[in-house]
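User: Sequence recovery, please. Input:
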């Protein structure tokens, strides 16, 4: 039995749970692809697995999935413009974005706090989204002295971490 819940209210209520912002990237015929993904989390430590929730209407994901690999770039608070650019349904998302290819050929966005290089592990239909599971092959992260903060999203807006003093 499924309760009748208003979609707008559901989205608004779930907005009370803050999340980080990632850009999921891949390539198709040497062309970089990517989209902003807010619904990302770890699944397993052994093997190292991560999960993404992707809208079923995504035009980028089927092309990325076909390659069998992708990267997850965890954005820093200084990369808000990249988040916005990759959230748009059209336009040149890569204009002005500095990146390089990982060993697996996935785009790594320079300046991201962490980048996970993944191979596609599994996928499940879930309502108007698909849940994709990636097996992490390699991690590119900051040195221990890196002081950058992640880009956060809460109640429909970007926010900053403020340290408790």
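Assistant: Recovered sequence (165 residues):
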């Amino acid at each position: 039995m499924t309760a009748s819940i208003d979609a707008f209210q559901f989205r608004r209520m779930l907005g009370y749970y803050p999340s980080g912002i990632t850009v999921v990237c891949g390539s198709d015929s040497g062309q970089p692809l990517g989209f902003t993904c807010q619904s990302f989390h770890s699944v397993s430590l052994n093997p190292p697995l991560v999960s993404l929730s992707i809208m079923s209407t995504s035009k980028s994901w089927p092309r990325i999935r076909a390659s069998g690999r992708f990267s997850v770039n965890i954005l820093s608070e200084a990369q808000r413009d990249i988040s916005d650019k990759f959230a748009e349904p059209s336009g040149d998302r890569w204009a002005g974005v500095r990146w390089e290819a990982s060993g697996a050929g996935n785009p790594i966005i320079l300046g991201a706090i962490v980048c996970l290089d993944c191979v596609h592990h599994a996928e499940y239909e879930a309502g108007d989204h698909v849940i994709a599971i990636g097996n992490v092959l390699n991690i590119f992260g900051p040195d221990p002295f890196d002081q950058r903060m992640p880009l956060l999203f809460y109640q429909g807006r970007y926010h900053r971490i403020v340290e408790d003093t």
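The helical segments are 7-14, 60-67, 80-87.
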